[in-house]
Every structure is written in C-alpha cells, then in structure tokens.
Amino acid sequence: MKWKWLFWLLAVVNVGLYGYFELSKPLNSGTASGHEPMHPEKMRLLTPQQLDALPKSAPVSTPMEQPATEQPAPQALEQLSCYEWGSFPSRRLARARGVVDRFGLDAKVQVIANQEAIRYWVYIPPLASFQEAQTRNDALRSLGIADTFIVQDAQWKNAISFGVFKDEALATRLAEDMRNRGVTDVVKAVRNKEGRQFVLLVKNISSNAAEEIRKLKPDFPYSELKQVTCQ
User: Fold this and answer.
1) From 67's CA, which of 41, 47, 59, 129 has a CA 20 to 30 Å away?
2) CB under 8 Å to 172, separation ≥6 — which residues?
3) In CATH, what number is assigned to the domain containing residue 88?
4) Mean pLDDT of all residues in the chain?
5) Checking DSSP bridges between strand 160-165 and strand 187-191, what pairing results, if any?
6) Using one digit for the tens of pLDDT, what is the confidence trace for 60-115?
7) Is residue 34 part of a domain?
8) What are the CA-CA distances from residue 162 to residues 25, 110, 155, 165 (Å)?
9) Same domain (yes/no): 183, 142
10) How far apart are CA 141 and CA 190, in angstroms?
C-alpha cells in the first residue's frame, strides 16, 4: 500500500515537470506579423550625398493671411434745402410750376403783397436779333462786365439783363456804374408791380437742381431763386 502511494506521487511530479519544460520552449509556428527578424548583414549606412538625394517631404503649407478688405467709406447724403422762387404774375405762374414739376419737386404757391413783389431791373432794351444781342454781350464782357444774360422771355426777348434787385439803391448804383463804363443805353425800371404776384416755396431741392433752375433765368428775367429756412 505504501509503495502504491509513492508510485502515484512520482507520476504526478513527472507530468508536472514535462508540462513545465514543454511550455518554456519557443513557438516555432512562425514569426508574428510586424516582428520579422532583422538581418544585420543586409543593413548599410548612407553617405551624406545619398541622404541629400532622397525625396524630400513636402513642407506643410500654412494658409496665407489675407489682407483686410477696406470697406468703402459711406457716401455722405446730399444736403437738401428749401428755396423761394419768384415772384411771378399770374400769367407766368403756370410756366414756373411746369419747371418745378419737371424736376419732380414739391412746391407750394404763396401769394405776396404787391409791395413785397416790386423789383428794380437794370437792363439794355431788346435788340433786333439774338446775334446782335450776343455781339453786344461779348463787348460788355471785354469791359469786364461778366454778370449778364440775354433774356429769352417773349415780352423782352434779346434784352440784356444786368440784374434784378429788391433794394432800389443797389439797382441805381449799378446803372450809374454801367454808364460810367460807357454803357449809355442802360435802363433801370420797376417790375412786378402789376396785379397779384406769386412765389413758389420749393422743398427738398438739391444744390444741383437749384443750379439748373438758376440757368433758366433768361426765361424768367424778373425772378430770383433764394434759399430760405425750411418750415
């Protein structure tokens, strides 16, 4: 019985030793992927020239900083103003309103007192033709008299105007100055004293539109366009 127990004990020890040595052996089933053996005999050092000949990796490009785009300066809004244009007798009022409508402007008609409407006009009476008036006007300019225009209004067509004044003293002074310069046929006369007179109060008019209306002075010789306070 004692020998039987010893036999089995030695058998178990032998099996355990066999298993230990079998598991300690390296695996011969092949080299794991990514762990291939190195072969030192196949390795060689590269010279500096060979290193320079190797393809270079492309440098990482960094986006260029875009210059800040300058925003255009906001355009200043054109200043609009109010003007008073006149005065006109009733027979010329419709024609003046047609000019205002042509520019798309808002205008209000106002009746003014006769005394307020009176103006003093300095002018040379109408000449025979526009050509004759133009020749005379050129002669005035040669004397240094530049602030003139040839009237195109039917009643006074081809007259040469020097100016229309509310102050009679200013008109008198201008007429005397013209005579001293040799313009002997100059005339000072009162205008706008017949019947009721009207002015147009024009709102929201640009400087360009006002200048265009001033250019129509030959068609409205007794009128004036002046800037007033908007109401």
Assistant:
1) 59
2) 120, 188
3) 3.30.70.260
4) 78
5) unpaired
6) 556 666 666 666 655 555 678 899 998 888 888 889 999 999 988 888 998 887 77
7) no
8) 129, 27, 17, 10
9) yes
10) 25
CA distance 53 to 27: 42
Give dist(CA 227, CA 82) in Å, integer.
Answer: 6
Indicate whether 167 belongs to any domain.
Answer: yes
Q: Are residues 138 and 176 in the same domain?
A: yes
Residue at 54 is within a domain: no
Q: Look up residue 1 and give its DSSP letter.
A: -
Tell me the CATH number at 139. 3.30.70
CB 107 within 8 A of CB 203: yes
Q: Residue 63 falls within a domain, yes or no? A: no
pLDDT (0 to 100) of residue 157? 92
- Which tokens is 30 given? 């092949």
**Cα 196 to Cα 112: distance, rounded to the nearest angstrom:** 7
Element of type H or E holding 209: helix 207-214
User: What is the arrangement of strands in the sheet containing 81-89, beginning at the earlier edge strand?
Assistant: 106-112, 197-205, 81-89, 224-228
The tally of domains found in the chain comes to 2
- Domain coverage including residue 150: 119-191
0.85 exceeded by the pTM?
Answer: no
